[in-house]
Write a structure and sequence with these properties.
The chain has about 425 residues and is an alpha/beta fold. It has two domains: about 5-110 and about 275-420, Rossmann fold (3-Layer(aba) Sandwich), CATH 3.40.50.300; about 125-240, no CATH class. The chain contains 14 helices and twelve strands. Helix 10 (about 260-270) runs parallel beside helix 11.
Amino acid sequence: MATTNEVLKIENLLLRFYTYEGVVEALDGINLGIKAGEVLGLVGETGCGKSVTSFSIMGLVPAPGVIEGGKIIYNYNGKPVDLVKQKDSFLREIRGDEIAMVFQEPRAYLNPVYTVEYQIGEALLQHRKKEMIKMALDEIKKAQENQLNKKLKNIEAEIEKLKMKGEKENQEKIKELTKKIEQLKSDSSTKRSSTVTMYEKMLQNPDSFYVRFLAKIPIINRFKKWLKHAVKQEVIRILKAMQIADPQRVAEMYPHELSGGMAQRVMIAMALACNPTLLICDEPTTNLDVTVQAQILELIRYLKETYKSSILYITHDLGVVAQLCERVAVMYAGNVVELAYVKELFKEPMHPYTTALLESIPRPEKELKSIPGMVPSLISPPKGCRFHTRCRYAMPICETVKPEFLEVKEDHFVACHLYGGHKK
């Protein structure tokens, strides 16, 4: 299943939750790959392990969850890195920068006591601090030049007035003003040079002791105002890219002042603030009306083309998958049971669970069918294939042997004994 252009690859990932009721076998050796620039859909019933998969990638598995096996290989600066083995410091570095996530309930993840500007700006200062300092430095240089030019123009205008009154009579005054121009240029150049040198040292290493030591000096406090201004301008630019009509007003709002669709756009803005390589969307249109849902989907499609990010789109809605995704992985009870291109999967589903899912979609010309039985408890899941208790094609081998995840057609992977998915 490995390809040369995959940004992330999950191999045999095992995840367990040790609870008082028993051990929850949340992920049972899943395999998944996300290609560069693609939108991969991850679908399945509630509780099948979709969100837990995303939390595993982000390094945010809540206690008492433990990753007990497998790999999550991320292509970091052209080198494969196993995220499972990395320290929290490394995960914090790439989380929000290289890999970002849009959560299912935006209001649960937006801090109610801070403005939109503060919360998006926090991500910018965490992962793009040097860029923000450079933007502030450019603004300072521009402001200093404008201030100098304004003074010089006033003096030059005064010299012109004196010349019109009589150059000989006002010769001494004109000489005095000319010297003042030269002095202003010299003083401004010296002042700008020393100030810029100090700020450029900040740019080289914004977290150094030198910067922390200078934090008490008034000139640094003035710089903080410029830095805040630069961050605000970048926040407004990002919100505008989210197709928000009045980004400056929204930047000053608190989460409780936002509608559901607007809050989700802010979450997407926060996730895309650092232009991540991989964006994970965990059911971002849940609880939104169909009009706003269509707008969010169109926005994600537009942003994918603009930012060229790979997207893992988690949903239980196959209609959304058909609109947005290029490939789709189907999950059931902690296993990926089928993976294929969207058109191929809708045209010729191969796993019995995928077939049953498609048959359960309401269609005018077809009878609505439900999947018999219930999703098994992951504390004591069925042995062998976890779907065999609900499968119309179940065989004796399905009750004892777990099927392997095999490529049965080109780019079409299935874990089912109907296609020879038994271990050799």
